[in-house]
Amino acid sequence: MSLGQDLAYHLPFLRRYARALSGSQTIGDRLVKQTLAAIVADQASFPTDVDPRLGLYAAFLDIWEDQGADAMAGEAEGDEAIAHRRLARITPRPRQALLLTEMEGFTSEDAAYLMDTDRAEVETLVADAVAEIERQTHARVLIIEDEPIIAMDIEQMVSDLGHDVCAIATTHSEAVAAARAHRPTLVLADVQLADDSCGIEAVKDILTDFRVPTIFITAFPERLLTGDRPEPAFLITKPFQRSTVKAAIAQALFFDDATVPA
C-alpha cells in the first residue's frame, strides 16, 4: 500500500484537529494542504517506525509550529480575533494536548511523541487546559437529540461542566422553536432526528436567526468530513466518551465571543 493510501483515511480527522486548533476552517484546511505538500516533497523523511497517523499528525504539528501563529494573525477577524483574545490567557501547548488526547483519541504516550515531551507533562497540560477554559466559558446549551438515554447523558455532562441546559429538542421544528425561545450560546446536535429530519438542516435554520457555536454528534463522521463546504468545525463520533464531549464543548466555547472575558 502506498503512503498516500495509508494517509487518506486519516485526512478528514486531521482537518478536524486543524480546524479545532486554529478555530478556522480556512486556516486549518490551508495548513493541512501545506502538510501534505511537505510530505509529498520529501517522502523519504516521513517516519516509518511509527503508525502512519502519528507520522501525519507530527508532520502537521511541524507546520503548525512554523506557521500557525502567523496564519492566525494574518486573518485575525471573527473567530480568529476571538481566539487571539483567549490565547492571551492560555498557551497553545495545553490546548494541543487536550485536543490530541480527548478529541483525537491519542494516548498520552502518543501525544507525548507528537509534542516532543513525556506522558506526565501531557497529562499536566491537559488538566491545565481544561481548568483554564472552564474558567473562561459558561454556556446556555440547546441539545438536539432524539434518543432519550443519550440526551439525558449529554444533559448530565453539560450540567456537570457547569453549563445550563436551556432545552432538549428531538425534531427539526422543536429545535428551531427552542432556539428562538431560549437563544442558546451553544448547540449540541445529532445529525439524524426523530422525525427523519436532519440536525444539520435544523442548525442551518437556527443560524439564519443568530450566530451560535455548534457541535455535531454522529455515528458516521466520514459523511460530514468530505472536504466540501460547509463542514462542521466540531464533530463528535458515536459512541462517544464523556471526555470527548467535554473537550469539544471547551473548544467550541473557546472561539465564542459571548464568553470572552473583558
3D architecture notes:
This protein is α/β, with parallel strands linked by helices. It has 2 domains: 3-134, Up-down Bundle (Butyryl-CoA Dehydrogenase, subunit A, domain 3); 137-259, 3-Layer(aba) Sandwich (Rossmann fold), CATH 3.40.50. The chain is 58% helix and 9% strand. It contains 12 helices and 5 strands. It has helices at 3-8, 11-22, 25-41, 52-74, 79-87, 92-103, 108-115, 119-136, 148-160, 172-182, 199-209, 242-254; strands at 140-144, 164-169, 186-190, 214-218, 235-237. A 5-stranded parallel sheet has the order 2-1-3-4-5, sandwiched between helices. Helix 9 (148-160) links the parallel strand 1 and strand 2 (164-169). Helix 6 (92-103) packs antiparallel against helix 12. The model is unreliable at 258-262 (pLDDT under 50).
